[in-house]
Predict the structure.
Amino acid sequence: MILKIEKQQLDNIATWIKPTKETNLPDILKGVFFMDGNPLPDDCMTFMYNSEWDAEKLTLFLPVFAEVQWTFHNSIPGQLLLLAVWLTRLTYKIQFEDETLRIAQIIPLTFGIPTPKWIVDFTMCQDENSHNGDTWKRKNLWFRLIPGIGDYTLQKIVDKDGRYTPAFKDMLSKVENECLVIANN
C-alpha cells in the first residue's frame, strides 16, 4: 500500500471527514472531535470513519493510520507524526467501562501489538457537564509515575448530523486552517 497525503482545510472539515458507509456506533461517539490542548502536531479526528465497533464488548478499534481519519499539522513535525502513525499502523483499542460509555481505557497498538499499561495508561472520560458526549477528558499516565503529560480535552466540533457545534469556532481560533490527512487510495 502506498501512502498518499493530501492537504485539507479545517474550516470546512464537515464536508470531507465524514463516513462513507453507515456505522453502528452509538450516537455519543459520532461526529468530529478537536484535541484541544494536545501538544502533538495533530488536531482533529473522528470515531465514525474506518473504525470497528463491538457493541457486545463495548470496544472500538480506531485505526489512526486510516484514510481521512485524523488530521495532522502541515509542518515537518506533523509530517513525521503522520508517517510514524502510518508505518506503525497505530490503532487505538478503546474499551468502555460500561453501557453508559462515559469512561474508557485506550490501548495503543503498534504493528497490532498492544503497548503495555505500565508504559502508557491512557483514559478517556466524558465531562460530567457535557451535553451528549460533546466534551471528553483525555488523561495520560506514563511509566505508572508521570501523570498529565499530553493530557487534553476532546471537543465535538461536528455533530452526528454533520452540523458544526459551538466549539467549532473556538477550534478554528486555535489551529492553522490547512492540515494534512492520509488520502483515499
Summary: The mean pLDDT is 93.
